[in-house]
Amino acid sequence: MNAVDGPGYLDEPQKSGSELNCPVCAQTLHDLAKLNEHLDRIHGFGEVSNEDADSVNTQLTRSRNVVENSSKAAKANRFELKRDHWIKPVMGKSRCRTCSKSLTQARQAINCRRCGEVYCKNHCNLIIKLNSNAEYNPLTGEWCKCCINCFGNRAGYNEFGAVCNKTSMFKELRGSKVEDKQLRKLQLENRFIRLANGIQQINNQSSKSMLASIRKYTEINKLERSVVPWTPDEAAFACSLCSKPFTLALRKHHCRLCGKVVCNESQTNCSNQLPLMSLIRAASDLPISTEFVDNNAEDVQIRICSACVRILFIKRKFTRELSLPEPSILRIYENMRTTADVILSILPQVLNQAEEFSATPNAPDVALLTKMRRKLLDSFALYDRLTKQMLKIKPKNPAEERIQRAIVFRASMLIQEHMLPLRSLTNAASTQNSSHETTPESERSMNQGYGNNLSIKEVKEYRDQLMVLKEQKFLVENMIASASKQRKFDEAETLSGNLRELNEQVEMIARALGEEGFS
Amino acid sequence: MGWVKSPIHKRAHQNKRYNTATMLQFKLVLLGDSSVGKSSIVHRFVKDSFDEFRESTIGAAFLSQTIKLEKHPDVTIKFEIWDTAGQERYKSLAPMYYRNANAALIVYDVTQPGSLVKAQSWVEELKNKVGDQDLVICLAGNKVDICDEDATAREVQREDAQLYAQEQGLLFYETSAKTGAGVSAIFQEIGERVYQKKGMEVPSSTQARKPLNVELQRPSTNDSTSCCS
């Protein structure tokens, strides 16, 4: 396209003056606007966009021509928009269609150029391209003001095509699949129950008599075949799971639950001999009689393919592992994370406070700063303790060890990163303190701050107690009020005695809490 | 004649006040697991009413009730009852109320074996913190009306609880706040016991002087409540 974009080419239509020939059909037209319209209508250029790249050279030049012509034409003769559909606003009476504001001045009112309705200035501030008939025309139209309705209703705006909801269809399909799966599972479970019960019974009999013990394995074999009909060996040429052809080395085996012929490859794990007792234990929710458990039934193994194992046991294992208490490593990590959150939220506050303090040192700031700093240091100490606890845990497997190492690494990073600014802060505060004479009040609060070494649990307990006491104080105050109202003065006296006790208790706990109390 | 009569009359009157008509004030605290019916028992005793859907107590409620002892008709006892909340949250309030109490009523629910365990822990706590020489402790198994309707609902046998009460030297009653069975008997018995303890310690000094005030004020109290509210 750039190749044909020469200044000489651009000048060409203007040179030809009032007489213009259509480049397609060579029809003579009077001016550029006419030619434009002719091209749009007869030759269908209205839809052609500039991006159509794979056109022939001539076509490109033509389309280029059209666009150039249209813009020039619009500039050449002034665009005349149809106005007879405009609704004439009556000042003071008409209202904006969108906000219903009454329009009192002619300056405020404005007609939507497309639908002609009256709007206020604020609700007619969108623009779309309209042709002279006030119809939407994105190609040759001029930018005109319009209302939100016309803006939104124009063709091609926000179009997503037809919506077809396939959720129900999907649900139906999926439902049938899930149902199939459920049925399959139920079938396998029933077979497993029969097999397990039968084998245990045979085991039990064999322990009683010699004859039965000789016949034990034939009996089990018979039972296995009765539970599920085995696929005949001749019909199977390849493993039904991994599709590997059977050879002399790769033998055929039958899954005792689905009866299919599978291989015994250790790589693909298509089937395995599994001890019956551990299977029963794995599916402890199934109604399998376990009265013969103490017999030496451990030696009985049954072959099950991996597909049946997946259906029967994987989900059980998952749910059981889910119900186990979460490992201590995670618990500690959770604690560490909340502590880290506390640290990260306090630290900027402390730094800000310290800055303010160094700028304008005064007493109340000192108390607040001390309190916050203490809280921060406590949090750091707790974090450090938790990290040490984490280190003490012996990992059960390599994965856990890796997780543990990562957590500890992250923890030490965090401490290094955030303790550093704190150290400078400590220096600043101490120098500030030594240079600035400490008021007795601030000193006292500091001593108190460091004096009571309450653990977090104790603080929590004290706070709970304080809350309960304050509640009770409020209740008793109300009781006194109602008792004196009813002129039961002896009751009021008893109650005030209790109130005094409550106040004493509240004070005592508040003292014990010290800085940790409710501020 | 009038001169002779009036001193005698006066003296008789005085006698009645100071010696025969004794009025004693006792502090009683209710303890026990939550929702065993402590508040219901108190309300049955004080207001003789029962609310099927009572809300759980917050903190500790205060009520008072005056009774005459059956065995000593001239003794009036005013119970100042602190009905504590059974919920674990309010456990820290309890010591304040049992500290100077004359009697403690520990309630359990005969349909809830756990509540008896809780009651036993309260007995332990009282004996450790207060000592039972100053305190009359009474154990009450509440909600027997449920067992009367449906015998299978009973989880704590009367004999078991009674045996425990005997071992610990507690008063024991089974009650029903709903029907009112055993409630007044319990307070009569507690009053009797406390009177025996107190009566020996303080015959008439501080306790006897109080009624003077009370009796003088009482008529006006009643009048004002009856006409104004």
TrEMBL record, chain A:
<keyword id="KW-0863">Zinc-finger</keyword>
<dbReference type="InterPro" id="IPR011011">
    <property type="entry name" value="Znf_FYVE_PHD"/>
</dbReference>
<dbReference type="InterPro" id="IPR036531">
    <property type="entry name" value="Rbsn_Rab-bd_sf"/>
</dbReference>
<feature type="coiled-coil region">
    <location>
        <begin position="452"/>
        <end position="512"/>
    </location>
</feature>
<keyword id="KW-0175">Coiled coil</keyword>
<keyword id="KW-0479">Metal-binding</keyword>
<dbReference type="InterPro" id="IPR017455">
    <property type="entry name" value="Znf_FYVE-rel"/>
</dbReference>
<dbReference type="InterPro" id="IPR052727">
    <property type="entry name" value="Rab4/Rab5_effector"/>
</dbReference>
<feature type="region of interest" description="Disordered">
    <location>
        <begin position="427"/>
        <end position="450"/>
    </location>
</feature>
<dbReference type="GO" id="GO:0098588">
    <property type="term" value="C:bounding membrane of organelle"/>
</dbReference>
<dbReference type="Pfam" id="PF11464">
    <property type="entry name" value="Rbsn"/>
</dbReference>
<feature type="compositionally biased region" description="Polar residues">
    <location>
        <begin position="427"/>
        <end position="437"/>
    </location>
</feature>
<dbReference type="InterPro" id="IPR013087">
    <property type="entry name" value="Znf_C2H2_type"/>
</dbReference>
<feature type="domain" description="FYVE-type">
    <location>
        <begin position="233"/>
        <end position="313"/>
    </location>
</feature>
<protein>
    <submittedName>
        <fullName>KLTH0E03916p</fullName>
    </submittedName>
</protein>
<dbReference type="Pfam" id="PF01363">
    <property type="entry name" value="FYVE"/>
</dbReference>
<dbReference type="InterPro" id="IPR021565">
    <property type="entry name" value="Rbsn_Rab-bd"/>
</dbReference>
<dbReference type="InterPro" id="IPR013083">
    <property type="entry name" value="Znf_RING/FYVE/PHD"/>
</dbReference>
<dbReference type="GO" id="GO:0032266">
    <property type="term" value="F:phosphatidylinositol-3-phosphate binding"/>
</dbReference>
<dbReference type="GO" id="GO:0008270">
    <property type="term" value="F:zinc ion binding"/>
</dbReference>
<keyword id="KW-0862">Zinc</keyword>
<dbReference type="InterPro" id="IPR000306">
    <property type="entry name" value="Znf_FYVE"/>
</dbReference>
From TrEMBL, chain B:
<keyword id="KW-1003">Cell membrane</keyword>
<keyword id="KW-0813">Transport</keyword>
<dbReference type="GO" id="GO:0015031">
    <property type="term" value="P:protein transport"/>
</dbReference>
<comment type="similarity">
    <text>Belongs to the small GTPase superfamily. Rab family.</text>
</comment>
<dbReference type="InterPro" id="IPR001806">
    <property type="entry name" value="Small_GTPase"/>
</dbReference>
<keyword id="KW-0449">Lipoprotein</keyword>
<dbReference type="Pfam" id="PF00071">
    <property type="entry name" value="Ras"/>
</dbReference>
<dbReference type="GO" id="GO:0005886">
    <property type="term" value="C:plasma membrane"/>
</dbReference>
<dbReference type="InterPro" id="IPR005225">
    <property type="entry name" value="Small_GTP-bd"/>
</dbReference>
<dbReference type="GO" id="GO:0016192">
    <property type="term" value="P:vesicle-mediated transport"/>
</dbReference>
<keyword id="KW-0547">Nucleotide-binding</keyword>
<keyword id="KW-0342">GTP-binding</keyword>
<keyword id="KW-0636">Prenylation</keyword>
<dbReference type="InterPro" id="IPR027417">
    <property type="entry name" value="P-loop_NTPase"/>
</dbReference>
<protein>
    <submittedName>
        <fullName>KLTH0H09768p</fullName>
    </submittedName>
</protein>
<dbReference type="GO" id="GO:0003924">
    <property type="term" value="F:GTPase activity"/>
</dbReference>
<feature type="compositionally biased region" description="Polar residues">
    <location>
        <begin position="218"/>
        <end position="229"/>
    </location>
</feature>
<keyword id="KW-0653">Protein transport</keyword>
<dbReference type="GO" id="GO:0005525">
    <property type="term" value="F:GTP binding"/>
</dbReference>
<dbReference type="GO" id="GO:0016050">
    <property type="term" value="P:vesicle organization"/>
</dbReference>
<keyword id="KW-0472">Membrane</keyword>
<feature type="region of interest" description="Disordered">
    <location>
        <begin position="200"/>
        <end position="229"/>
    </location>
</feature>
